[in-house]
Amino acid sequence: MMRILVKWLAGGTISLVAVWVVTAVFSDSIPLEEWSPTVKRNILSPGTTYQERREGWATNHVGGFGLIASRPEDLAASAKILIWGDSFVEAFHVEDSAKMHRCLTDRLHDPPGDEGAALAIGERFCSIADYRFRIPDYEVALKDVKLHVIHLYSLEDTFPDQYPGGRISLFLSEPELHFEKYDNEFREIEEPVSPGRARRLIHQYHLQFFSRLRTSLAGIARLDGLRFSPGTAQKSTADPAAHRAWNRFLEPSWGSTEPPLEAWRFLLRELDSVTEAPILFVYAPPTPALVSGKLVLENPEKNLADHFSSLCEGQGIGFVSLEEPFLRFLEENGRFPKGFHNSRPWEGHYNADGHRLVAEAIHTWIQKNRHVVYPD
């Protein structure tokens, strides 16, 4: 009996070690977060790392203020360019050196000179409403901000009332156009966190499998997600994964509507009112893409993008479209700016090529508008 018990214990131990080793290498890290009183939100803990494995394959290093791939010399630069965005700018999917803000910083220093540095402030599910509230806090924290670059993947975020279940702060039209802040004190959606010893150990030793297993078992014990009635199960409309299905951007529900000019004017005025620094929108269309093996090159938002660009120009706000650079890159190289070895070639987030193209577009605009970015 004792021998059988020893064999079971030994087998279980070996299995657990094997699972630990495999999941430590081949699964995403569990992020470590902490409250920052300076920027008034929970941030990734500076000095930690995060590995991405589901889409792409990269290890991300977290710098000061929770900014990914930010170096001390970048944070100390006398002129800073802040790139705002969602998971496209968060960019867990590519190595630090390939991220758009690092590519832009390299171009700013070629030829060598004191041209400052670019920093990325990205978080999945962020939108324009979040940037409107966060810009003042980060300007105080980082200082010497010369330009705010707002990355838009599609124009969805510029429309009010778009899928509040997949947003943080909100852009709403009722009872009138306004931004609603994601506020810890009053809405109590996100409480300030401080990682405990157990979570630090899980992060340090890549024990994410065991943490997720515990969460799954707890959910099963509570009968979460279980259904005991007959019929076809319907996916929840509040599911962020359903919301971010990539093919929906090729036939956007907002693409056939009239341009929301009043909402756009309000949006631009609000952003302009919270900063003295110039603002540049960098717009990325969902094309080029593949559908049933056929190339889709026509941007379904073309008309909307033209109207938004005109409004930006009228408000003295910069606008750059990545439509032509993306199409030209595909034509010349036969590759898409999105997609990885472990995903479809056109779907998902920017690969290293996409980040480089974004950085080149921003740099070209800066070179043409140096008097705007560097008025002194």
* Element pattern in H and E: HEEEEHEHHEHEEEHHHHEEEHEHHH
Number of E strands: 13
Distance between the termini: 83 Å
Q: How many helices?
A: 13
Which whole number gives the mean pLDDT?
Answer: 90
> What is the domain tally?
1
Q: Strand order within the widest sheet?
A: 6-5-7-10-13
Residues in β-strands, percent: 15-25%
- Rg, alpha carbons: 23 Å
Task: Tell me what you see in this structure.
The protein has a single domain (39-218, 260-373), classed as Rossmann fold, CATH 3.40.50. It has 13 helices and 13 strands. It has helices spanning 2-26, 72-75, 87-90, 100-108, 128-142, 197-204, 208-221, 240-243, 261-273, 302-314, 323-333, 352-368, 370-373; strands at 33-36, 41-44, 49-52, 58-61, 80-85, 117-122, 145-153, 170-172, 178-180, 279-284, 289-291, 294-296, 318-321. A hairpin with a 5-residue loop joins strand 3 (49-52) and strand 4 (58-61). The radius of gyration is 23 Å and the shape is globular. The mean pLDDT is 90.
